[in-house]
Amino acid sequence: MLLDCLTPLALRPHWVVAQLGQSLDGRIATESGHSHYINGHDSIVHLHRLRALADAVLVGAGTAAADNPQLTVRHVHGRHPTRVVLDPRGRVPGDLALFRSSDVETLHITGPDATPAPSHAERCVLPLNARGQFEPSAVVALLATRGLKRVLVEGGGVTISQFIEAQCVDRLHLMVAPLLIGSGRPGLQMTPIETLESALRPTMRSFRCGDDTLFDVELGAV
Question: For 200-204, which contacts have Cβ atoms below 8 Å and span 24 or more sequence positions?
């Protein structure tokens, strides 16, 4: 049952969980960026359950701009998490849905040289590393200082990959839909390895979620 992978999250006071929906061939969108909806309704409900358990739900600038998500709980009962947008260079448009509403707390995390946050978001500033990105551990630490200790990293693939490589993800919920896209944007995009000895071999369980399959991948302590 899906509750088997949610119960540990409900019982623990702090965690970082990443959620990614993809096709059988590992695509999260077509070449044009179309991604609504790769996964089915049951998978969307599961995602909203994760949001309801989280203190904060986090997306990168590319996902925020491309998908214009609300990042709220609508398909289940529960409170809305704080919405967090990682935007190192301040390139996310200010007219996005999550910036137009003050009903849900929204944090706009930017680099020092980015423009101020849109009207209904609070700007938080973090330093950038040599690649012009935030260190995932610094993001998690910043959120913890604000009491946001259960963090859902919802996208996109690049952001989730960065958090996994930084060893900042406790669990990955990988939702695989029964379709082949054949081209388009890949899901996880990790640093290339030369041999399979360097590949991650985590413990995992699988669950049916409507027509999709959920892989509950253990990467940390949760």
Answer: 202/172
H or E element: which one contains 52?
A: helix 41-53
DSSP β-ladder status, 212-218 and 171-177: antiparallel
Q: Decide the pairing of beta strands 15-23 and 171-177.
A: parallel
pLDDT in tens, 175-186: 999 999 999 999
Q: b or e along 18-42 (b: 16 or more beta carbons within 10 Å of the residue's beta carbon)?
A: bbbbbbeebbbbeeeeebeebbbeb
pTM: predicted TM-score of the whole model, two decimal places: 0.94
Cα distance between residue 158 and residue 38, in whole Å: 18
Q: Express each pLDDT in 13-22 by its tens digit.
A: 999 999 999 9
Distance, in Å, from the CA atom of 176 to the CA atom of 217, rounded to the nearest integer, reads 13
The full set of domains in the chain, from first to last, is: 14-26+34-188+204-218 (3.40.430.10)
Give whole-number Cα distances, 23 to 31, 111, 160, 174, 186, in Å.
14, 33, 17, 10, 9
